[in-house]
Amino acid sequence: MATQKMLKFVTIGREMPEKRDAATRSEDFHEIYREFADAKAKEQASRCSQCGVPYCQSHCPLHNNIPDWLRLTAEGRTQEAYLRSQETNTFPEICGRICPQDRLCEGNCVIEQSGHGTVTIGAIEKYITDTAWEEGWVQSIAPAVERPESIGIIGAGPGGLAAADRLRRMGYQVTVYDRHDRAGGLLIYGIPGFKLEKEVVERRNKLLADGGVEFVLNANVGEDISFDAIRGKHDAVLIATGVYKTRDLDIDNAHARGVVRALDYLTASNRVDLGDEIPDYEDGELNAKGKRVVVIGGGDTAMDCVRTAIRQGAQSVKCLYRRDRANMPGSQREVQNAEEEGVEFVWLSAPGSFSGHVTGEAMEAQERDVDETGDIPTISSVRIQKMRLGAPDVSGRQSPELIDGADYDEPADLVIKALGFEPEELPRLWGVDGLEVTRWGTIKADFQTHQTSLPGVFAVGDIVRGASLVVWAIRDGREAADSIVGYLSGAARVAAE
Q1: Could you count the other beta carbons within 10 Å of the beta carbon of residue 280?
Q2: Is 30 exposed, middle or buried (0-12, 13-18, 19+ CB in 10 A)?
Q3: Is 47 strand, coil or helix?
Q4: How far is CA 495 from CA 152, 230, 492, in A?
Q5: pLDDT value of position 63
Q6: Across residues 166-172, what is the average pLDDT?
Q7: How far apart are CA 460 and CA 165, in angstroms?
Q8: What pLDDT score was predicted for residue 484?
């Protein structure tokens, strides 16, 4: 009689991989979780209840076959588990590291709802694919047949790379254009190494390049190359630029020296981690060492900033968020990690203004008007406005309301604005007529085919959805690849007729 490998959640408790202690991990940018050992991965996978209706799968944007590869892992069939996981996900080792599983698959796990603690899906997904790389199971891109059609992809983030991988494996000629000097988008420059070590992204980039995907880097569309030129070179174009325009604050001294954008701050830190020389980091502008740091925002980007500042040696790090902990949009797991590392969260608080002093000659000659000298004030404190939660807004979340007379000044040497991202005005920047956008500035595209208003031009990811998750960009990229194949097949049939 066969031994039951699954449904062990009653006798085996939930365990995450070992987490490095806060004092040690705060000194470096390595990932904070250690790898599951083989036996522990099998044990934790065996806790799956193998639901008839797997809510973990239905709440995953990629609809990964999670119960299948959990069962295969529990049975010791790790290679088969990997093959099953990569059927639906181009980058399972990346999603295993950075997906907010507590809001997606793990948060909807049936045994979690019954009080037994969720299966550690993300950690097992990471283990499966890391093992596949180590054992040489990750297959190189080797199309059975080469096709003549060419696709240009603008943006080397997760959406663009997912589409490139899928199209190239089907034999299409793929060229990826990106404004940066490395491929990966926010995977390489936005997300810190303690969540996603850069070697993980770079080996995927190498797999694509070795498989025939051409990368044209340092190519800023609209400046270094025109959109029309790209469109003229290819049979189809995919726009996967992401959203990089930072939301700003409409308050006094919002542009004071020492007040920086989250993306600038994280990019500088990641570049230094990759070995680049960054003048703004070296001169202290984008370096938190020894400073009193205040981060404004409550999403995952804010969590990345506060935890980066800790690792750079900040004197203190505080995170201002205008709602309470329960209403915070970022991952609760990330909030816990940040608190362990020494970050202080100041709930129900918002910045009212930035106070500063001027330096150099302007400081020495205080009788002169600062506006006339052109000197920019340097941040010295943040005026904090205390809030309370009022009536729910249209989204159902309670709206923050100002508490009169409860303001106070918080000393600060570096303020990081992590307020979210908005789309750039691509039609204007690229000089493109006929590319329709929504009232939010995102590209208007069909949500099934990803076709835009321009024939043969498709769009995916944040530039369509607004700022969202990596896993949604991967899904969009895979879907768009299939739609592009359909479009090119139809165009070939018309040409033949």
Answers
A1: 15
A2: exposed
A3: coil
A4: 21, 22, 5
A5: 97
A6: 98
A7: 15
A8: 98
